[in-house]
Amino acid sequence: MKKQLGLSNILFAIFIILLIIPQTRTPIQVVINKVKLLVWSPSIEDEEDQIQIAPFGYALKNLEGSNETLEIGKGKITFISYWATWCPPCIAELPSIEGLYQDYGDKINFLLIANEKPEVVAPFMNKKNCKLPVYMAQMNPPQELAHKNIPTSFLIDAQGKIIIKETGSADWNSKKVRGLLDGLFSE
After folding, report:
1. In 3-state terms, what secondary structure has residue 146?
2. φ, ψ for residue 117 (rounded to 5)?
3. What distance in Å separates the CA atoms of residue 99 and residue 87, rounded to the nearest whole number?
4. Each residue's pLDDT tens digit, 20-50
5. 64 and 18, same structural domain?
6. Domain count, the chain
7. 71 and 102 co-located in one domain
8. 4, 23, 136, 153: most buried by Cβ count inside 10 Å?
9. How many helices and strands in the chain, by DSSP H and E?
């Protein structure tokens, strides 16, 4: 019993030390968040809790430096995720968002919004082999899309109702989300 207790204490101490070291902290946190993705898909808001946002044009700048305005709540489903390249939960969920984008990118506005320089984001996306469109906001979002944590993601229906608001990593490429999207397209 003493040997087991001693070994578990040593392993725990090693784990804590690895979390303190910057070079190993992020990979460990990414792995922990990937494990979370195995069981956590985004929660669909109850209909009475779905917030309606007024249609608006989101002023954005893409990675190439061009200004764009994407219409939100005006006839097309929109996925918005506020994220960062240094954020372990963001890194963990990125492949699931990319998977959803690969199948629904022509039907849905996908907006990954970063508060970082394009010179940082573009190489990160290339390294991850992600084709998702990334933008930098050129305006403050409406209050309904305000967020304090990253990642915070929203799925907004074609009429501007927030169907999902999720803070933290989640499996966006889950059967639950795909079923919801397929249902929204059939309406």
Report:
1. coil
2. -75, 145
3. 19
4. 766 766 776 777 767 666 666 788 888 888 9
5. no
6. 2
7. yes
8. 153
9. 5, 7
